[in-house]
Amino acid sequence: MRVLVASLVLLMVVLAIRPASAQDPPPRIGLFVIDLHASVPTFPTDDAQLVSSRGLSSFAELPGVGIGVQAAAHLYLLKVKAVTFGIGAEFAASRARQSRAGGASTTTGIALRPVEERFSTFSPQLSLNFGTGRGWSYLSGGLGMSNWALVPEGQEGFPPDSEPLKTLNYGGGARWFMKSHLAFSFDVRFYAINPGAPYQGFPGTPRTTLLVIGAGVSIK
Fold it and tell me: Which neighbouring-strand residues pair with 177?
């Protein structure tokens, strides 16, 4: 369901920017843009393999929704008809925390521990951009590496929490320039994370697609 909702939001964003009228020729998309976003990641909360990978007692220990940041830079070097092609890179980091310490799982009766979940990734990106220098929508994607850590209290330094995982990211968004060099921008992105390796009897983390929604400013 969350993937369907995000896909509908993304479609609305891509269709949001209309070209300017012929009487007022709009400027072309500029040479570069830098995005700075606050973001909301939705970590999985119902994956039994993820729970087992860190020896958690129940789904109730998974943190779920968190907060994060995204930073990206893109260059626009080629325009073919209505499409401007871009290359760039993105860094994203986010975290969530469950702190229901002292309570107990309703299914197992075992006391719940505070658990912190962290995700960080870096990736080059290619983008297809539609619009003008006053505002444009885009679709983009890239293949990079990420780190996905799930840390129950007292289990710091667990090797799988620092394991590099190949990650495909894809999504899109839009930028609306309120001033000549400053825009409000919005991004919906999926991170398809490869499964992790087993460790000392624990299964590896599962193959997961993480949804992250970001909003903030863009500078050109």
Answer: 183
